[in-house]
Amino acid sequence: MSVTERIGPAGGRSVLVTSRSFSSGSRDLLGELAEAGLTVVRGPADHRLDALRPLLAGTVGWIAGTGPVTEAHLSAAPRLTVLARYGVGVDAVDLEAAAARGVVVTNTPGANTEAVADLTIGLLLAALRGIPAGDRRVRSGSWTISRGRELGALTVGIVGFGRIGRAVGRRLSGFGATVLAYDPMLDAEAIRAAGAEPVELAELPARCTAISLHAPGGGRPLVDADWLAGARDGLILVNSARADLVDEPALAAALRSGRVAGYAADTLDTESTGGTSPLLAEDLADKVVVTPHLGAQTVEAIDRMGSLAVADLLAVLDGGTPTHPVRVGGSR
Ligand SMILES: NC(=O)C1=CN([C@@H]2O[C@H](COP(=O)(O)OP(=O)(O)OC[C@H]3O[C@@H](n4cnc5c(N)ncnc54)[C@H](O)[C@@H]3O)[C@@H](O)[C@H]2O)C=CC1
Ligand SMILES: O=C(O)C(=O)COP(=O)(O)O
């Protein structure tokens, strides 16, 4: 579909869709929007202002992926009433600017939890057993082996023990791993009740063979040179959350020194900044595996995210209350 293709009647009120993966799903969501008298307009997922400006002018609702929503975007959308984040993280949205303009922000908590938890285990196993590197060797004619670890023998740390962190913890417990968790918003009892040992962030590197990140982005990196200096040799780090949780140059140095044995991620800084990632350097190819932010991309999660986003968008446009509002300070 081209950037400005319209679905529904010309003119009238329009809904801008910039999520990469929004589709009708099992409920004909595009039909529901059209039935509500809304024209659906597609825009670029990276939210380039020059391309979006003409589309934002008439938009009353916006279904957005992970692209930035800044004061400049909002001021280009004077009729905007509701920004429905199709997904969970609101780190790229200027929530204060939205609140100041009376724009209601919603998201789809829980809709992609199982999808991201599944991918996280896949990334962890890929790094732990060297699956992508093994595949490359076979394709180049070599049946050279590598030695990994069994997941059940490991102590695994989880940073951010929310919906996805706990879903990953449940899967890890099923494998027989020992699960430690750090979450500054949860008390120790809540963490224990969800099956993990509560620990401080600083304890994790020395105690874990693998650590998985599930905290919101938008702040300073939690994984930096100091934190990495405390790691056991051979740490595996998994990041299916946000790139800015990790100081990437510091991690590249730790991978080269061998302190960190592997990094498996669904995101990199370059996802939003463009350019070249230090983690994609040729000499790190066998230690780093990256997927293109596809954690939420399952048939099931896309269906749930779309249904929740459209239901809340229509509720707000009807003058009602959304089920999943995001308030200022609702993120990290
Ligand atoms: N790869 C992908 O496609 C996806 C990535 N995500 C990312 O995963 C993150 C987590 O998603 P959910 O589990 O659904 O959110 P959630 O809100 O249920 O869990 C986040 C947890 O992190 C905790 N937290 C906040 N600040 C923290 C800090 N400084 N250190 C450690 N923990 C902290 C919170 O208390 C909360 O329990 C999202 O914010 C998003 O960035 C989410 C969905 C899809
Ligand atoms: O839900 C999130 O925070 C995600 O990262 C998923 O984003 P997406 O819908 O795949 O652009």
Automatic annotation (TrEMBL):
One matching Pfam family: 2-Hacid_dh_C
Domain D-isomer specific 2-hydroxyacid dehydrogenase catalytic: 65-326
Swiss-Prot/TrEMBL keywords: Oxidoreductase
A GO cellular component annotation in the UniProt record: cytosol
Residues annotated as domain D-isomer specific 2-hydroxyacid dehydrogenase NAD-binding: 121-295
Enzyme Commission code(s) on record: 1.1.1.95
SUPFAM superfamilies: Formate/glycerate dehydrogenase catalytic domain-like, NAD(P)-binding Rossmann-fold domains
Single annotated GO MF: phosphoglycerate dehydrogenase activity
Family: Belongs to the D-isomer specific 2-hydroxyacid dehydrogenase family.
Name listed for the protein in its UniProt record: D-3-phosphoglycerate dehydrogenase
